[in-house]
Amino acid sequence: MTEVGSALIVVDAANVIGSRPDGWWRDRPGAARRLLTAIVGLRDRNSRFDEVVVVLEGAAKAAVTGMPDLHVNAVRVVLADGSGDDAIVRVVSAAQGSSRYHSTTVVTADRGLRRRVEELGATTVGPRWLLGRIESV
């Protein structure tokens, strides 16, 4: 359970996955599964990642098909009904309206999304920030 004053990290999965030309476009669900697995592993090793929300959209949502629980080891998966960016803004807006989090950080390189979430009070970092932490272990 996340305590009051936790740090929330919201991941724009499509943007992070798309930041590396590793063939992700041939298997979007597989690429999303690999990212989720890496984030769960990172969260398990790094207590600085209090709570992580990963937003999946489009074909990548199939990465969690048949999974009964979309909240594993403080990593919550949000499946966007439409725009992933809009889903991220909703997550950030809800977090900013709560006393549960002392900070919210969004991982994305999308300039338009950065502007939207920064207007809500979140900070932003690029995909390299997250990928560097995943790869450093």
Describe the structure.
This protein is an alpha/beta fold and 137 residues long. Helix content is 39%, strand content 22%. It is built from five helices and six strands; from the N terminus they run βααβββαβαβα. The chain has helices spanning 13-17, 28-45, 84-96, 111-119, 127-135, and strands at residues 6-12, 51-56, 71-72, 75-79, 101-107, 123-125. Strands 3-4-2-1-5-6 form a six-stranded mixed β-sheet, sandwiched between helices. Strand 3 (71-72) and strand 4 (75-79) form a beta hairpin. The chain is globular and about 40 Å long.
Morphology: globular
Overall structural class, as computed from helix and strand content, comes to alpha/beta
The helix content, as a percent range, equals: 25-40%
Low-confidence stretches: none
What pattern of helices and strands is seen along the backbone? EHHEEEHEHEH
The biggest sheet amounts to:
6 strands, mixed
In short, what is this structure?
This protein is of the alpha/beta class and 137 residues long.
Reconstruct the topology from this structure.
Layout: E1 6-12, H1 13-17, H2 28-45, E2 51-56, E3 71-72, E4 75-79, H3 84-96, E5 101-107, H4 111-119, E6 123-125, H5 127-135
Parallel strand pairs: 1-2, 1-5, 2-4, 5-6
Antiparallel strand pairs: 3-4
Descriptors for this entry?
single chain, alpha/beta, six-stranded mixed β-sheet, 5 helices
